[in-house]
Design a protein that fits this description.
Structural class: alpha/beta
Shape: globular
CATH class of the largest domain: Alpha Beta
CATH superfamily of the largest domain: Vaccinia Virus protein VP39
Radius of gyration: 20 Å
Number of domains: 2
Largest sheet: 7 strands, mixed
Bound molecules: S-adenosylmethionine
CATH topology of the largest domain: Rossmann fold
Distance between the termini: 62 Å
Number of strands: 10
């Protein structure tokens, strides 16, 4: 039997680590997240052969530990996502956004998946818009997908998903946009080039001073990301993100989130969807 070493976390270590998480990623960890901190960072202690969380903290903030900072951040993010998660948002794209683009005679549309995790969200938007705008009407679609976590971005760029992950994708879209693995790769599905060409993945930390993004967007997805931020960070990040929307563009958040009292210039439309004034 393999015995997995368990580490104990003192109050002082917990407070130091959560302060560092907040400074690095804006993520606020409540007292209830103690077990999460233990389980996520224990893996790093084992990988680095360290004995205490205090040693780990000192290493991360030391000049030698600079390259560990990204692993530190990757370890603490929560990356749960799904294809067509909260499907009414993709129905909205098809039933409201697409007809509007056609009415306005648009030739190109841009979408930002902000906090894209392993790619399911941007690929779902790309499949929806390619099917309803590009194929029938020749309208170009570009999707920018960003995340702070480099490991999820690697997975997203790889674009390989298993049987469980692809379940929510309608069969017709699966056939059109994915290659089915054979032999050694049986049970795996790989995103086809037609979809890859639409989506660009880039690393972006929402709390960074500068966002290296010059484009403006017709739709911004920022779903299930701000729940991890303090009220003040939420307000700051949302205001910045909404600044990248064109007038009349749509800001889409997760089911447990609200923009109430957070951002000026966005009007509630329906069901976690807001419109830029
Ligand atoms: C729960 S996932 C949501 C994925 C997708 N938007 C969805 O709703 O299915 C949250 C994502 O936000 C990212 N995230 C957390 N803090 C961030 C920050 N400061 N800057 C950018 N992305 C961040 C995490 O790495 C994670 O992949």
């Amino acid at each position: 039997m393999i015995e997995i070493k368990k580490f104990t976390l003192s109050d002082e270590e917990f407070n130091k680590l959560r302060r560092l998480v907040f400074d690095a990623a804006g993520i606020s960890l409540s007292d209830a997240k103690r077990e999460l901190v233990i389980s996520r960072f224990s893996r790093r202690l084992r990988a680095l052969n360290l004995s205490t969380f205090g040693e780990y903290y000192n290493f991360v903030i030391s000049p030698d530990g600079q390259s560990e900072m990204q692993n530190f951040v990757n370890s603490i993010t929560t990356n749960k996502t799904d294809f067509f998660r909260e499907p009414h948002h993709f129905d909205f794209l098809r039933d409201h956004f697409v007809p509007e683009c056609l009415r306005l005679g648009r030739r190109e549309v841009r979408v930002w998946s902000a906090g894209c995790s392993t790619g399911e969200e941007p690929y779902s938007a790309a499949m929806t818009l390619h099917t309803h705008l590009t194929e029938p009407h020749g309208i170009r679609v570009k999707v920018l997908a960003t995340d702070i976590d480099t490991s999820v971005l690697d997975a997203a760029r790889n674009g390989i998903y298993d049987e469980r992950q692809i379940k929510p994708i309608p069969e017709e879209m699966l056939r059109k946009y994915f290659l089915r693995g054979k032999e050694d790769s049986a049970g795996l599905y790989k995103v086809k080039d037609v979809l890859r060409e639409i989506v660009t993945f880039r690393q972006l930390n929402f709390i960074a001073e500068n966002y290296p993004i010059s484009a403006v967007f017709d739709v911004v997805f920022c779903r299930n990301v701000i729940i991890y931020f303090s009220a003040e960070t939420k307000k700051r990040v949302l205001t910045r993100l909404s600044g990248y929307l064109t007038r009349g563009g749509y800001f889409i958040i997760g089911h447990s989130e609200t923009l109430f009292d957070m951002v000026d210039g966005l009007t509630y439309l329906k069901n976690t969807i807001y419109r830029k004034d």
